[in-house]
Amino acid sequence: MSVELWLGREYEHTHEMKALAEFVGEMDRIYGTSDNLYLVMANFYCGGEEIDLAVFKQDGIVIVELKDVGEPLKGGENGNWAIINEDGTKQPVYSSRSRNPYQQARAYRFALMDKLTEDAVKFLPKQKAQAMRFGHISSVVALRPSKHPGGNIDVGDQSKKWFSVVGLNELPQEVYYRRSPQLNFRKDELRKLAKIWGLELFPMNRLVPGKPVEKEDEIVQTEQPILTNGEAAEKPQTLSMTLDADPCFVCYYTEKSCDVHSLRGTIKDVLINKGRYFLELRTAEDHSPVLLDVGSGWGQAHFPMLKSALVQLSQPGEDHQLSTAAYHLSKETDGSFQVLPESLIVIEPDWLITVTDLTKVEYCPRQYLSDQFTLIEPNKYLVGGNIVHQTFEQMVKTPRDEDAITSSLEEAFFQQASNLALIGYSKKDAWGQVSAPYNKLKKWIGQTELPESVSSETFVFAPRIGLKGKIDSLWSEDGKPRIVGELKSGKTKGAQPKPGHRLQISAYNLMLLSRLEERPQGLPQALLLYAGNQELSHSLNITREVVLTAVLFQEVINTRNQLVLIDYLADAPFETQYANKCLKCPTYNECKTLSILLEHDDPRPPAFHRQEETGIQFTPNESEWFQTYIRLLSKEYREAKQKQAVLWRMQPEEREKEGAAIIVEGDTQEQDNKGPGSFSYFLPTDNQSELREEDYVMVSDQLGPLRGCIAQGTIKQTNESGIVIEFKAPLDFIPAYVDKYVSENLVKRQFAGPYLWLTNHPKKDMFVDIQPPRFKGGGVKPHYPPIVDSRKLNERQQEAVQKNPRDGGLPDYSRPSWFWKNNAYPGACS
To answer: What is the pLDDT of residues 281-327, one digit of tens each?
Structure first.
């Protein structure tokens, strides 16, 4: 049997079953006697997406989205698709989650790629699973009964490589043509995959009249796999609901094993029943929701903000669903899942939080929120810390090379020159501040026996736990991490490290653990280095070792979850226990102002408010204006975070096809450096990408950005034979891939603009409460230059030019809307 149908569940609607019958019948008529297998999976869930059809061949995979549309259809990559009626009117074609069919097909493709990557070792031999490139999947929108010749679906050349729109009558031929040499399956592997995903073989005779009944056992036994020596030696693997092929990284540091390594899905609801807290999840493995008992501690800490986030994402115009990944679980007899004492639950794991941000909630969660709306101004402590950090980076690399260390110190001063000028500090003043920690660190490096292999400022992605960050110093032996060092230019309060710093270095260790493919011999030593501590008679008093525990790792993830929810809600819990924390808080004014502008529910009693404050008042229009911009910026911020996930959810070849990456082909050539902090390299490649000069990129070695070494740089030159990239530090690995890197910081910095404009700028009414000019009889009097397109500007336009919105830090898209609203475009002259 060369065409097989495997169902997740039967379709609910008649037209869907008819379309399936037509397609399967035609496939069986054309390919029924073929030696190749066409395994059709229908109506199944994958990564939270419900897929109509997917055809798995031995040399390709094609996702099919069925649409019952016979009229002319018009659409593209963006915007709605519409049916063009005979009278010329348009009828929108709606898909799930407010996506057009192209966006829906693209989402299905990514979901299937992700799921296949996660489950590869379940149905493929280990070596084959690691080599498989699931990025070569195609998506097709099939129109029933046929594609009208008067339609027009316009997509880019890059999309045409994997996407097409055909009539249902053309679909069997399109499936035949769609293939890739990167995909190579045996028949038994494809059938095994269908079973793992919970699909059942559907009798073809129920859809294809005259088709003889064939039992599943007979089908499976028609082919026996031929194993290589390496494959024959592998033992059958126990199947469980795992997130990926790796073992449970939580089991690395706990004595108790788990039943289920990981569970991932979208959060449908949060439930409380008889004192027990549950997440209702939709997973790819189960068509019906499953329950995860998260425990009372986790539930009480997360449910209030989690409920608010779910409510916000259910509003019109929102098409995103919160996801979660839970690790180290047990499975109950009723089919639900239960957390264990060491379990980790990660909300939105693809939302990578920078590790240093974990320290910003140590005093109060609202401090993290307030920081987003204020500008960080340089001060002597910040500048001095930057100089010490940069010099220490060279110390750990070449501890005995005095010239290199001295040169690094000079380079650090050079890079901080503008900040020194801003704070009115001379180089002599700065040296007086950094000389003590500088000399102390040199002495510590010289006296301490450390592994010879070391890397500094190591940038690490850890999407399994939703974290990213730069490790100051990582000492290794035989390729295994032995010491994780985090430098602090300040000092401790007493003998113990600061709580936020404990979280930070624990997070770095947890990130490294989550990236390992096998159990390590032991955990790396977590070492905090306080260069600002007073030297003692018997000790330099620099180091503070942090003992890593499962409880500390849970605190890391729970703190990280809190930051994610603050980002989503633009809100954070108030301090309600200690009044002095609020009264003495350095961000008290910003916290108070934000609570008014964003209409936060402030539960604090009068004792938590300063008596001398008169109260800040804003008009309803001002609050609405501010909330609108913050909502738009939050969506843009979320989009930037989601774009980062492409780095680990798509294969390099797929990213290259999309034009967002290049694969290095040849030896990297170092260029002449322009000066301190500038290290340029030419990377040879057949450059067909959309990368441009001044694009910010992520460069990684042959293991890719998820597991390999990475560095960030800026493209300085591009041509067909390669690109030149400038880095702030020399590369210490061989580049293999270059990916466009979307940094959310570019968006995050814009949050301060609307806030500062509304709270400090005397001309804030230029954006809020302003009325367009009204001209009385007699026409418009001539106005003075400047002149645009040979036309003079009116007074309002003059004011607009003088008070360019971009000077206030607002996003660019605010500019045209303001000008049009206020008749301030050149076209409004008359």
So the answer is: 988 665 578 899 999 899 999 999 999 999 888 887 777 889 999 99
Instruction: Report which residue type is found at 462.
Output: A
Burial 721-733 (b: 16+ CB within 10 A, else e): ebbbbbbebebeb
**690-737 pLDDT, tens digit each:** 888 999 899 999 888 887 888 889 999 998 888 999 988 788 889 999
Q: Are 701 and 738 in contact (CB under 8 A)?
A: no
Percentage of residues of the chain with pLDDT beyond 70: 85
CB 576 within 8 A of CB 304: no
Name the 3-class secondary structure at 394. Answer: helix
CA–CA dist 277, 255 (Å, integer): 26
Q: In whole numbers, what is the pLDDT of the chain averaged over residues? A: 83
Which helix or strand (DSSP H or E) is residue 725 part of?
Answer: strand 722-727
Residue 498 has, within 13 A of its CA and on its CB side, a CA count of 20
pTM of model > 0.90: no
- What span, in angstroms and rounded, lies between the C-alpha atoms of 131 and 221? 27
Is residue 618 within 8 A of residue 597, CB to CB? The reply is yes
Q: Which residues of 284-323 are buried (b: 16+ CB within 10 A; e: fewer)?
A: bbeeeebbbbbbeebbebbbebbeebbebeeeeeeeebbb
Peptide bond into 145 cis (omega under 30): yes
Which amino acid, residue 114? D
CB atoms within 10 A of CB 592: 21
Q: Give the pair of three-digit tokens for residue 173.
A: 């031929």
Beta-strand ranges (E) seen in 294-435 are 323-331, 337-347, 353-354
Q: What is the pLDDT of residue 318?
A: 78
